[in-house]
Amino acid sequence: MTTYRESGVDIDAGDEFVDRIKPLVRSTFRSEVLADLGGFGGLFNLQAKKYQDPVLVSGTDGVGTKLKIAFMMDQHDTVGIDLVAMCVNDIAVSGAEPLFFLDYFATGKLAVPKAQEVVKGIAEGCRQAGCALIGGETAEMPSMYADGEYDLAGFAVGVVDKPKIIDGKTIQPGDAIIGLASTGLHSNGYSLARRVFFDKAKLTVTSKVPELDRSLGDVLLTPTRIYAKQILALVQSCPVKGIAHITGGGITENLPRVFPDGVRARISRKAWTVPPVFQALSRLGQVDREEMYRVFNMGIGLILVVPLDAVSAVLAKAATLGDRGWQVGEIVSASDGGPEVEYVD
């Protein structure tokens, strides 16, 4: 008799996995969650009366080839944090509060302890962001993935009052640009990083690199900073005009996404110290500086555009929230035809 298990799908393992992750999922629940894990859909009470004109904000993303580092190190409890961060940071820059999160975990053969570690990280990310993990999908697909490997995707929904949406429309010349520190590469540029460190330099995840104070693998697997709660606190107390999540494409590609017509940015590279991992990447890979700034965040994970007279207050507030920040530039007129983001030394 032919069974589903013989085809590569183990229903019993899936049931065991759900049982194991239930406490992790419940640890993220907010009062608005109306159903436990295991239903066909997650139920969340928006409580719209709390808002003047509620607008839902959604986002989806993955972890990318940073997962390859997790596979190489056989360490799986942090990539879930990256997954949540990449989604909730994107919706938070609109001024939205992340409400709930769903994940998609796909693998060739379900290894329950490993998958549980992944969900442990997702739950931790949700707690950091203040959102509830209310559902997800675990897909066991034989022959679709290499042995021991998996893929992740995430989906976040948040809410913001329409009058409080941060959209950059009021940004004008003379405004200041503030950068908040990243924790490293976050979850972008890993295809280039892996090519430099592992293909060209022939290093391993246990290698010691002169610029780094930990093994290469530990540095590369550092989780992405989640800025959601900090953003909410900042926009409630400071006049923030625009916010950019610095992901793939670096400052060069992401900052202009919040610009209205008629402005551009002038960024001072001297305003902050580029973290050692980027210095090592540039040296070992002989990667051109402009390419580095066009691919990586270079130590700036989030940018806020504020009036010049609000800089001190924003930096002080960010510090109380645990984020180091710098005034990294200014908004200037685009009438001179310069690049959208101009770097000065």
Secondary-structure-derived class: alpha+beta
Shape call: globular
Approximately how much helix is present in the residues? Answer: 25-40%
- Topology pattern, helix = H, strand = E: HEHHEHEEEHHHEHEHHEHEE
Strands, total number:
10
Mean pLDDT: 96
User: How are the strands of the largest sheet arranged?
Assistant: 6-8-5-9-7-10
Low-confidence stretches: none
The fraction of residues assigned to DSSP E strands is: 15-25%
Global Rg: 21 Å
Largest sheet: 6 strands, mixed
* End-to-end CA span: 72 Å
> How many distinct helices?
11
Task: Please state the oligomeric state of the protein chains shown.
Answer: single chain
Question: What does this protein look like?
Answer:
By secondary structure, the chain is α+β, with helices and mostly antiparallel strands. The protein is 33% helix and 22% strand. The protein has helices at residues 11-26, 67-73, 79-92, 112-129, 190-200, 216-220, 228-237, 250-254, 276-285, 289-295, 311-320, and strands at 54-62, 97-107, 132-140, 150-161, 176-181, 242-245, 263-268, 300-306, 325-333, 341-344. The strands form 2 sheets. It has a 6-stranded mixed beta sheet with strand order 6-8-5-9-7-10. Strands 1-4-2-3 form a 4-stranded mixed beta sheet, with helices on one face. The longest helix is centred in the middle third of the chain and has 18 residues, at 112-129.
Topology:
Elements: H1 11-26, E1 54-62, H2 67-73, H3 79-92, E2 97-107, H4 112-129, E3 132-140, E4 150-161, E5 176-181, H5 190-200, H6 216-220, H7 228-237, E6 242-245, H8 250-254, E7 263-268, H9 276-285, H10 289-295, E8 300-306, H11 311-320, E9 325-333, E10 341-344
